[in-house]
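Blinded run. Sample ID left blank on purpose so nobody reads anything into the name before looking at the predicted structure. Input follows.
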Amino acid sequence: MIADDSGLMRGLLASALGRSGIAVVGVAGNGDEAIECCERLAPDVLSLDLAMPGRNGVGVLRELRARNLHIPVVVVSAFAPQSGARAVDALAEGAFDLVAKPRSREELDPFVSDLTERVLLAHAEGGRHHVSPALAGAGYTSQRSTPGAHRVVLIACSTGGPRALAQLLPKLPPTLGDGTLIVQHMPPGFTAPLAARLNRVSRLTVSEATGGDRVDPSRALLAPGGRHMRVHSSGRISLSEEPAIGGLRPCADVTIADAVEVWGERLLLVVLTGMGTDGLLGAVAVREAGGRILVEAESSCVVHGMPRAVAAAGLSDAQLDLSALPEAILAEAGAMHTDLVAI
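Blinded prediction complete.
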């Protein structure tokens, strides 16, 4: 189903999805119509604009949840740096993923391809309802070779990552290991609002990384959208506009490769929900250096692609439900067990 206040865009989306073999069962021009159609038609996926008259897209997401309508939502909207906070709100309210509307004719074909992929993926994986055992993996035991040594934590995630981070980071203490780095696939303008939102609910200080930042136990540095986060032997961060890798910038593999050079066996890689295989090459390097690797189990992933790739290659030390990862990260990073927040 398509919800968009522009008749032209509704027609474009219906035509594009139809050519891909996806049946459009209904359209809506505002938020109230979208909710009514979702109740009446029970679509497999909802394509949702954020800027609509009356009840906007975020309001629709909240109402769908209030009515217990479990419909995967792909947000299709015009995004700009100033609207990044609204996009992050949509992800936090349960949107499966975001697709930016094309701004020119040249962007139309990539837009159609991206939209089709996200809609099919939302139907295949986002429609699953994950019921995570509350204490799955409780009592995790660290395998640190040197008792008392701390590790740097590097978290890689993509689709579903903002929600996973919002559940994970608040359960971590105000200082963690020797520092925390996060690579979340997002366009420019989205990561600063995400960091601000995470910072409000976390005891760690969460911020978008800037050039010259130093890795520090009390901070979690989030790679900015549109730039690779590089790490230097001094423990300082620089930001790079080198070409995207596999269409990704930031790319987790880039940051992981640097981190392995700096910390070697003292690196803990955590791979959360996400589409694709970013993090796999980095995981190979972590394993060769003697570091540790935890991946999110399929039971709690929105999309199991990134964790699955690492686990299938035999590189993960443990596959844990998201609810069990805070305790495991604490055990591996070297923080005191008494710092663990009640899960």
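Unblinding after everyone has recorded impressions. The domain at 2-126 is CATH 3.40.50.2300 (Rossmann fold).
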